[in-house]
Amino acid sequence: MSREPGRVGELARYFLRLGATAFGGPAAHLGLMQQELVERRKWLTRQEFLDLVGGCNLLPGPSSSQVAMAIGYKRGGVPGLATAGLCFLLPSFVATLGLAWAYVRYGALPQAGGLLWGIRPVILAILAQAVWNLRRAAVPGDGREWTRPVLAVLSLVAALWGAPPVAILAGAAVAALAVEQLRRGRGGRLAGMGWLAAGGVGAGAPMTGLVGIGLAFLKLGVVVFGSGYVLVAFLKTDLVDRLHWITMPQLLDAVTAGQVTPGPVFTTATFVGYLLHGYAGAAVATAAVFLPSFVMVAGVGWLAPRIRQSQAAGAALDGVNAAALALMASVLVTLSRGVLGGPMAPAAGVMGVGCLAVLLKTRLNPTWLIGAGALAGWVLMRG
Fold first, then answer.
1. How far apart are CA 62 and CA 85, in angstroms?
2. What are the boundaries of each domain within the chain?
3. Mean of the pLDDT values across residues 282-288?
4. How far is CA 361 from CA 123, 129, 351, in A?
5. Do 62 and 47 meet the contact criterion of CB atoms below 8 Å apart?
6. d(Cα 372, Cα 163) in Å, to the nearest integer?
């Protein structure tokens, strides 16, 4: 497919519009791209689209943003990649930054507290729906494949025990690859691979200021596999538990901000960066967490077909997916303890269960539920 300079402009127009209207998370974003760019505009075939989606799922970082970048690269080369990625990200960055400003200025007021209290059970329901919908793809339950269910359970236990997410993901990949190699009688090739489970996990003394923020979020952009919700597990481990830069309620509010705005959930980094260092912190955190994706996506077209042909690489990816689902589940458990505690726990529980039922039974955009939760929280707190 030729790459004409004029196509960069149409990429900018489309992805700005998508970034300003794409609520509902990565799956919804991909559905919108498929409907518009494959079925209506015919920019690429269904197989080409699936290849890009599959290749991007093999990379760490925000999957739907990476698919947007990959489409931009296919359509307009490196300028197209940069244009599509930046235009898809920009509306979400601006909206999340506005919410962060309002949160810092008004978040301690009773009115704002009621809105946030009502939104939190909805976010739990959205996360629970994501775990439920991804379970079959990440952990098949047909009884013929036991490796991934076992890895998922072990990863969940490790996450709840406090193991670093990087170690969990790397360990699951190595274990799945080991099982695959043993099945094929190639166990000897595994020698020396144990470093994958431990490399890069240790942390030195925490750096403060913009440099520390940049390094922390750059690492997240390199190591976070799976859904944007997996990012929450890493944020909890690094920024809440280890560095103590933010609290658990602030983390949950940051996730809320990433969810109520259109575009990638990874702009949660924008919210956290603003809490840590104002506008400069928001810009640095956002740039750092997305930068690795811009660098890696150019290689997706080369990588995807080769991964398909490799049983070993596919097995390692299966292990990563199972562990990623377990990390999401561990975040759900941890956040539930905070939301469902206290004197308002019964009301929060009813709201969460009700929202989950609606999400599982209908195709309602989650944004409506978030709005309803905010209104309910405001009413209850005023009462």
1. 11
2. 6-91, 92-382
3. 97
4. 17, 10, 15
5. no
6. 36
Amino acid at position 58, single letter:
L
Within its chain, how far is the Cα of 189 from the centroid?
A: 33
C-alpha–C-alpha distance, residues 336 and 155, integer Å: 19
The residue written with tokens 């928001």 in the block is 282
List pLDDT tens digits, range 317-336. Answer: 788 878 878 888 887 888 78
For the segment 167-180, what is each residue's pLDDT rounded down to a tens digit?
888 888 889 888 88
Residue 258 pLDDT? 81
Between CA 374 and CA 370 the distance in angstroms is 6
Burial of 154 (0-12, 13-18, 19+ CB in 10 A): middle
| Helix, strand, coil % over all residues of the chain, rounded to 5 | 80, 0, 20
Cite the beta strand spans of the chain per DSSP E.
none
**Burial environment of residue 220 by CB neighbours within 10 A (0 to 12, 13 to 18, 19 or more):** buried
Residues 60 and 221 sit within 8 Å (Cβ to Cβ): yes
313: CB partners within 8 A, 6+ apart: 306, 307
DSSP letters for 195-257: HHHHTTT---SPP-HHHHHHHHHHHHHHH--SSHHHHHHHHIIIIIIIS--S-HHHHHHHHHH
